Write a sequence for this structure.
């Protein structure tokens, strides 16, 4: 009896994994040096489960309500959820019900809200600091100049564990401009590892989505956020799911 055909989701996932490994090797690192966060926005839990059953453990969501529903649907599965979209302070309680990581920490008020809730439930949280490397007013994130002072402020929040940085490059086919954004974040990370209170814990660079993740890896990404390259195009534009940030995750 022949084996059942591989699903499109699993085939695409395997291809993305291969390309991640190849880009890591091109950048002088081990094939498994880059973590894939599979972006699940608009994707039904049944299709997400196909990827999970193929060994995909890291999942990312942009909207708190949608992430909570999917986390409930996949309860019991060996997955780790990351919040990768803009997070409002009044959604902190809800996001902490499912997220093990927040990649979009971009202001002190959010850090305060997260810390207060984390203190009350007695847990910590991995966080990445979002930086606006494109300089576009429509994008969220700290300016590069504001990062050192923000990291000093973060040192006061014992429940928050800063692990590095996240960015969205300019949404353009111009490879030079996209790589400039990635190199800028890498430089910010390298300086922070020398100067920031958190020092060597700031290792992660979350950068690169479906259209540019191989460039991102070649520029030093340790985390890529890929959705459409695995699940296919979404029915609505990214601006519906991640206001203020054009891009293709």
């Amino acid at each position: 009896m022949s084996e059942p055909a591989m699903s499109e989701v699993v085939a695409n996932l395997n291809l993305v994994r291969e390309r991640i490994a190849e880009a890591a090797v091109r950048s002088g690192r081990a094939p498994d040096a880059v973590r894939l966060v599979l972006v699940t926005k608009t994707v039904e839990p049944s299709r997400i489960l196909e990827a999970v059953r193929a060994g995909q453990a890291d999942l990312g969501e942009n909207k708190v309500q949608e992430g909570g529903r999917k986390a409930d649907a996949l309860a019991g599965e060996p997955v780790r959820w990351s919040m990768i979209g803009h997070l409002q302070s009044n959604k902190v309680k809800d996001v902490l019900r499912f997220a093990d990581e927040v990649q979009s920490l971009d202001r002190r008020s959010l850090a305060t809200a997260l810390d207060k809730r984390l203190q009350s439930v007695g847990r910590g949280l991995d966080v990445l600091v979002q930086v606006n490397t494109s300089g576009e007013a429509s994008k969220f994130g700290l300016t590069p100049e504001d990062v050192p002072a923000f990291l000093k402020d973060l040192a006061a929040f014992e429940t928050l564990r800063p692990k590095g940085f996240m960015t969205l490059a300019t949404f353009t086919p111009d490879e030079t401009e996209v790589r400039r954004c990635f190199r800028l974040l890498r430089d910010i990370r390298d300086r922070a590892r020398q100067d920031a209170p958190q020092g060597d814990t700031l290792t992660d660079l979350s950068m690169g989505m479906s259209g540019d993740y191989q460039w991102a890896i070649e520029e030093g990404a340790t985390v890529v956020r890929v959705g459409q390259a695995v699940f296919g195009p979404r029915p609505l534009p990214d601006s519906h799911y991640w206001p203020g940030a054009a891009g293709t995750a």
Summary: Confidence is low (pLDDT under 50) at residues 241-247. Residues 175-195 form the longest helix (21 residues). The longest strand covers residues 99-105. The beta strands are 35-39, 58-61, 80-83, 99-105, 125-130, 160-166, 204-206, 223-226.
